[in-house]
Design goal:
This protein has about 350 residues and is an alpha/beta fold. It folds into three domains: about 45 residues, lambda repressor-like DNA-binding domains (434 Repressor (Amino-terminal Domain), Orthogonal Bundle), CATH 1.10.260; about 140 residues, Rossmann fold; about 130 residues, Rossmann fold. It is about 45% helix and about 15% strand. It contains twelve helices and twelve strands.
Length: about 350
């Protein structure tokens, strides 16, 4: 059976270097880490996790809290996190909250009792009780696709939802559209409110008149998109373009328009947000703002691994240590990218 000494001998490096590469220590070069990982796969080397954990006082387990595993956006995001952590010998324990605050709190409590090495979390709502529970954690934590509340000292990885919404609406305006409707997610969510704010601010910036009849919010699914498009068309039949705050809403709008024989983009243009795989299907071809899910998941995993390694080197991270911001790694804000397909066209 292959052991760590065999890997070191094969690469011509020390056992310590191989060990530090496996554990993603910052003093090992990316090239050396890559070579070690390739050798591990080639020799089918599997570290003894129990012995390793006892020596390093680690469980090599990461908790990943997501709001809804059935949402294709979050399932792809979770897969990216898991793939990256797997490369460094970590097991991921999922917490699918189904947008239930009680399940979120239970998962955080379990993370403490099970002694996870770290957490990557996407809470659906951050009430005072959950914030307090997170603040009691004595382990590295990263927020993913959520911003950190001011009470906590935790880095986040997210996209700039506001700026992406501005880009989407500007794109429609540049195509000549002025009568633009908005289909949005629940306003209580940060992402939903930011995308709505981007819509309103961009319309106001261009001095384009809009009213409450041009906005329908409150859902996330294809069904919500169908219902919202029906409401918008009855309220404002003169609309020539729609900005849907996620792709599922946009696809629902496309379906309603197809059933009612309103052609896209000839009669109305639609732009979404996320760039789900569905958006690129031949009969959908939805123009959208891309959230780079693989990049986001990879960055969150790498950020957490760096924090775990810093913790091993006696640099302590606690979620409530907001007085000493120097120990908190910087958050990462990623720019969304416009993906042009066939659901939008110039007006006239």
């Amino acid at each position: 059976m292959t052991n760590i000494k065999d890997i070191a001998k094969h690469l011509g490096v020390s056992v310590s270097t191989v060990s530090r590469a496996i554990n993603n220590h910052s003093d090992v070069s990316k090239e050396t880490k890559r070579q070690v990982m390739e050798a591990i796969r080639e020799f089918n080397y599997r570290p003894n996790a129990i012995a390793k954990g006892l020596i390093q006082k680690k469980t090599f387990t990461i908790g990943l809290l997501i709001p809804d595993i059935s949402d294709p956006f979050f399932s792809a995001l979770a897969n990216a996190v898991e793939e990256m952590l797997f490369e460094y010998g970590y097991q991921v324990v999922y917490g699918n909250a189904n947008r239930n605050p009680d399940k979120e709190k239970q998962f955080i409590a379990n993370a403490i009792s099970r002694q996870f090495d770290g957490l990557i979390i996407t809470p659906d709502s951050l009430d005072p009780e959950l914030i307090h529970l997170i603040s009691e954690l004595q382990m590295p934590v990263v927020f993913l696709r959520r911003r950190t509340p001011k009470e906590l000292s935790i880095p986040f990885v997210d996209v700039d939802h506001y700026q992406a919404a501005c880009t989407a609406v500007n794109y429609l305006i540049e195509l000549g559209h002025k009568q633009i409707g908005f289909i949005g997610m629940p306003e209580k969510s940060f992402t939903g409110s930011e995308r709505l704010r981007g819509f309103k601010d961009t319309m106001n910036k261009h001095r384009i008149v809009w009213g409450t009849d041009d906005i329908v919010v409150g859902g996330r699914t294809i069904e919500h998109g169908r219902d919202a498009m029906d409401k918008l068309h009855r309220r404002s039949p003169e609309l020539t373009a729609i900005f849907a705050a996620n792709d599922l809403l946009g696809i629902g709008a496309l379906e309603w328009l197809a059933v009612n024989r309103i052609s896209v983009p000839e009669e109305i243009s639609i732009i979404g947000f996320d760039n789900l795989e569905y958006a690129d299907l031949h009969w959908i071809q939805l123009t959208t703002m891309e959230q780079p899910r693989v990049e986001m998941g990879n960055r969150a995993a790498r950020l957490l691994l760096d924090m775990i390694n810093d913790k091993d080197n006696s640099k302590e991270f606690t979620a409530h240590n907001i007085e000493d911001s120097s120990v908190v790694p910087p958050s990462e804000l990623i720019e969304a990218r416009l993906i042009e397909r066939k659901s939008c066209r110039p007006l006239g």
